[in-house]
Amino acid sequence: MNPQSHARPGIRRLKPYQPGKPVEELERELGIEGSIKLASNENPLGASPRVADAVTRALAEVERYPDGGGVVLRRSIAAKLGVSDDTITLGNGSNDVLDLIARVFAGPGDEIVFSEHSFAVYPIATQAVGADAVVTSAVEYGHDLEAMADAVTAKTRIVFVANPNNPTGTWNAADDVKRLLQNVSAEVIVVIDEAYAEYVEDERYPDTLAWLKEFPNLVITRTFSKIYGLASLRIGYSVSSPAIADLINRVRHPFNVNSLAQAAALAALEDDEFVGASRRVNQQGMVQLEAGFRQLDLQWIPSVGNFITVDVGRDAGPVYDALLREGVIVRPVANYGLPNHLRVSIGRPEENERCLQALKNVLA
Ligand SMILES: *Cc1c(COP(=O)(O)O)cnc(C)c1O
């Protein structure tokens, strides 16, 4: 038997998600030490110190199944966001929730709309359920929300909007997002993926949570992987109408979020000081990298996330490889339709400096 020919067509055409290269792997391959990774938008400060204590306490009961309903954590998230508990659905990372949403609402013959240069998980979730991707053109690397609304047809089940977007760091203002919601049929689920929301300080950034009652087809996703620094534990969530939460819960694996992740998230949520410090380090690092790129005469895409995507002015593949040999791991984004760009996660000042120096060496 040839398993390929038995796989469903969407899956056969699927390219697996390419994660950032781990430091250990690079060092083993090249026999080097002291490398840095600025490739997966991880928090360079780690996580709140409260997390280690919470996880250690939770370790005492690893033999027990986690709270499948995530009751305590959901209550805490809801209180923080000013919404009710029954709007929150926990996922094994927010990617899990994105995938569940596709499974609940779309299947073969249906369409899912997302933008060019947007997050790699949308095509994967789309093809995994056998739906057809409708990809709208970007404007200045960002989402063209008017084009996205226009792309909706009677077959459309979901629109995915990353705000801010990864890997471009672009974002859409409240007026434009609201117009999208007004222009799209209430029969279509509109997912606003806000993985980097906590980094954005511009007052034109939408408070989508305030719109949930007005738009029952709106789903907002957030994560603990980015500003909270819990990427390894895999925990994220959606905020939606209780009716949508109920549907997602029907396909959600009963214990999709482990108890260490739940304990960690609960502790992380309470540490506003750590979140504030993470935001400051990010802003300063952004300024530092922009200044460095300017000195190198490189263009970049203005970003409000914890990463910045820079145009190296040539095929970025060899530049990426040369940076690896300098012990600096960044992210190639050719698979996002950006063959001349590299995405650099904002690091600590010394990491940013090292990255800029390596880039200077490599481009010389
Ligand atoms: C990192 C990221 C996520 C979050 O992924 P997790 O599964 O929560 O780790 C979601 N959306 C976008 C656009 C991202 O960049």
Descriptive overview:
By secondary structure, the chain is α/β, with parallel strands linked by helices. The chain has 14 helices and 13 strands. The protein has helices spanning 3-6, 9-12, 23-30, 49-59, 71-81, 94-105, 121-128, 145-150, 174-183, 242-251, 259-269, 272-295, 316-325, 349-363; strands at residues 36-37, 88-91, 111-115, 132-136, 156-162, 189-193, 218-223, 236-239, 299-301, 307-311, 328-329, 331-332, 341-345. The strands form three sheets. It has a seven-stranded mixed sheet with strand order 2-8-7-6-5-3-4, sandwiched between helices. A four-stranded antiparallel sheet has the order 9-10-13-12, covered by helices on one side. Helix 4 packs antiparallel against helix 11. It starts with a helix and ends with a helix. The model has no long low-confidence stretch (mean pLDDT 97). Residues 41, 93-95, 119, 162, 166, 193, 195, 223, 225-226, 231, 236 line the site of pyridoxal-5'-phosphate.
Strand order of the biggest β-sheet: 2-8-7-6-5-3-4
- Residue share in helix: 25-40%
Task: Please give the alpha-carbon distance between the first and last residues.
Answer: 52 Å
Which percent band covers the strand fraction? Answer: 15-25%
Overall shape: it is globular
Name the poorly predicted regions: none
Mean pLDDT: 97
The sequence of SSEs as H and E is HHHEHHEHEHEHEHEEEHHHEEHEEEH
Keyword list:
four-stranded antiparallel β-sheet; seven-stranded mixed β-sheet; 40% helix; binds pyridoxal-5'-phosphate; alpha/beta
